[in-house]
Amino acid sequence: MNLSAEAALFSILRLRMVEMQLRERGIRDERVLGAMTRVPRHEFTPQGYRNQAYEDHPLPISKGQTISQPYIVALMLEALALTPGDKVLEVGTGSGYVTALLAELAAQVVSVERHATLADEAREVLDRLAYANVRVIAGDGGQGFPACAPYVGPRRAACTARATCRRRSHDYPRGPRGLAAVAIDPDAQRQAADYVARDLPVCAVGSGRGAYVLGLGR
Q1: pTM assigned to the model
Q2: Where are the alpha helices (DSSP H) in the chain?
Q3: Which residues are bridge partners to 90 per DSSP?
């Protein structure tokens, strides 16, 4: 298959993903749906899994990490309710796919990844796709990245993070009007709800294959 035919096929699969996996399941934020229509998930997917890039499940990447299921990503982004002027801190760049989506929705994205190899790979793809409003940093984002603070926009700061129940929600920095969206392993659902409730009210909870999403109150 030549490159133009491959690009056309991926475009069709991406549109189908948005309509069948997201819109039909209740995702209503048109900015989120538009971003997920534009961002080529296959570009962030390892070569051996590119043919599965728009399927309804997570995909493995290096360092034992994954690209999250598209529906889970959409739930987190919808919970954040970003505006075009917002500045976002992302803890855990991973493949860079969510970073690209955040860049479509916000004015500036600072993304911190603890695995230097993943940070380098994500940075290369994001640069190739011309996301000029993204900064990818190799380091431990568990305590945020104050060098680029404040993470504020016209309305709010925001933070997205992958987490386990070993980390409490206050480990992830938020501005005074901030919001955090956290994807948590499904085996820890009950514990996750408990640990979030001890810190901030849960404003959105959505379940999906492979993870639970909890939106933490502003």
Answers
A1: 0.81
A2: 3-16, 30-38, 70-80, 97-105, 116-128, 189-197
A3: 111, 160
Query: What tens digit of pLDDT does each residue of 147-158 get?
Result: 777 764 433 445
Active-site choice (4, 11, 62, 68): 68
Q: How far is 60 from 69, CA to CA, in rounded Å?
A: 11
Cis preceding linkage at 150, omega within 30 = yes
Sign of CA dihedral 31, 34, 39, 41: positive
Is 152 buried (19+), middle (13-18) or exposed (0-12) by CB count in 10 A? Answer: middle
Which amino acid would we find at residue 72?
A: I
**Annotation says 62 is catalytic:** no
Which of left, alpha, beta for 151 (phi over 0: left; psi -120 to 50: alpha)? beta
The structure tokens listed for 172 are 């992830």
Q: Are the beta carbons of 87 and 108 closer than 8 angstroms?
A: yes
pLDDT digits (tens, 9 = 90+) for 115-147: 999 999 999 999 999 999 999 999 987 666 777
Taking a C-beta distance cutoff of 8 angstroms, is the pair 97, 44 a contact? yes
Domain spans of the chain?
A: 57-216
Residue type for 103, please?
A: A
- Of 185, 178, 180, the residue nearest 169 (C-alpha): 180
Q: E strands, 92-201, where?
A: 108-113, 134-138, 157-163, 179-184
27, 21 in Cβ contact below 8 A?
no
- At the topology level, CATH places domain 57-216 in Rossmann fold (3.40.50)
Asked if residues 106 and 88 have their Cβ atoms less than 8 Å apart, the reply is: yes
Residue count of the chain, please give it.
Answer: 218
Higher pLDDT pick, 9 / 169: 9
